[in-house]
Amino acid sequence: MGNTGGDSLTEDINTQYNLANMVWIMTATALVWIMIPGVGLLYSGLSRKHHGLSLIWMALMAVSVVSLQWFFWGYSLAFSHEAGKFIGALDNFGMMNVLAAPSVGSTAIPDILYSFYQLVFAATTAMIMVGGAHERARLGPMMVMLFIWMTVVYCPIACWTWNPSGWLAKLGGLDFAGGGPVHMTSGAGALAYALVCGKRHDPLADDKVKTYRPHSVLSVVLGTVFLWFGWLGFNGGSSGNATIRGFYAANSTNLAAASGAMTWLMIDYFRKGRKWSVVAICTGAIAGLVGITPAAGFVPCWSAVPIGVITAAVCNFAFDLKKVLHIDDGLDVFALHGVGGLMGSILTGFFAADYIAALDGATQIPGGWLNHNYRQLGLQLAGATATLGYSFTVSTVILVALKYIPGFHLRLSVEEELLGTDVCQIGETYFQDSDEPVYTDGVSPGVMSGAQTPVPRTEKTADESV
């Protein structure tokens, strides 16, 4: 057969696969892709208007940069057939030999399809992570940082967790769709990005960590709709085939999102002025989705309700962490994804059941506490600790190193930040006026409409980084 899975000139290399499996995973891939701009719309709506377009730009940038990194060596570093315990080899460098051989993640689909499916996971993770430095990050250095971050942070953690050769997979850690590689990795990376960049500058606010009202609740809702919709493929496709297990996972995903949405709505109703907030129900749905991600293909459907409720409740109170830590994680990426992924991983250890994993006709696990396998909780905690610690530490090292390279300083100056990332870095605004004259410096008379009142020009920069 060879290392490519066969010779298409002499045989039909499709016959080794059930085409229904490939159709479902390709459909799931398309569903996950829509999550990337979904995160961008969500982040954009939550930001202030004069930074809103930059968050949508980041979504398109993330999928582009990660696609190139994945082609270059990302897929090989994560899902190489010759991987070691910690990272893959380069046998698939430049997508070399990635064709019809059964993938390491699922023998039911070929390498070429599995690589595409995992690409959209990687791009979603990248987009979540860069939200840590919103409203103050320079976009050029962000692209460089993201390529490096994917290589030395995301790919090794994905290899540990999902490659059968990875140490965490060999140990017996359970992560169905990315509680560790996607959510904890991006959450810890975003926290490091926010820490190294420093707090946003605002002459009208005090020195405490600041919160602002979303500039577009409609964008928040649209982003949430894209995410909830796409998450059905995110979790449903992680079975790696078109079996009952994947469809069961999709059902659990929807149930956890609904449970999280209602929990967050109720908590905020009593904590924040007895209003039925749209942003609250959106945030709660995402918390429930994050919590069910590592568990969906391992746990009974009924457990999606406590997973959604517990994860949403813990994440709601975790939003106060930024005030305790004095780190300006304005989009609460760590509280929602880092903490949410941690809770989902722990709850997987409680609710995992052997008969649910076996719904695909092949997977055998000892289960969690439901099967009296009490050791599983310890394995889940070990994996979560390693993932959070590695991502935060290595992300911090990358960011600090870039900060001191000439031309790669991470954040905007005070004046640029007050004008807005959209004008200073992109040269376009969220609501473009076609009749407004364009100036060569990218600044036009209306650009300050969504920004704070400018302060007199000063030599001070906004670099409050560590």
Automatic annotation (TrEMBL):
It comes from Sugiyamaella lignohabitans. This is Ammonium transporter. The gene is MEP2. Belongs to the ammonia transporter channel (TC 1.A.11.2) family. Residues 442-466 are annotated as: Disordered. Coiled coil: none annotated. Residues 23-429 form the Ammonium transporter AmtB-like domain. It is found in: Cell membrane; Membrane. It holds the Pfam family Ammonium_transp. The keyword Transmembrane applies.
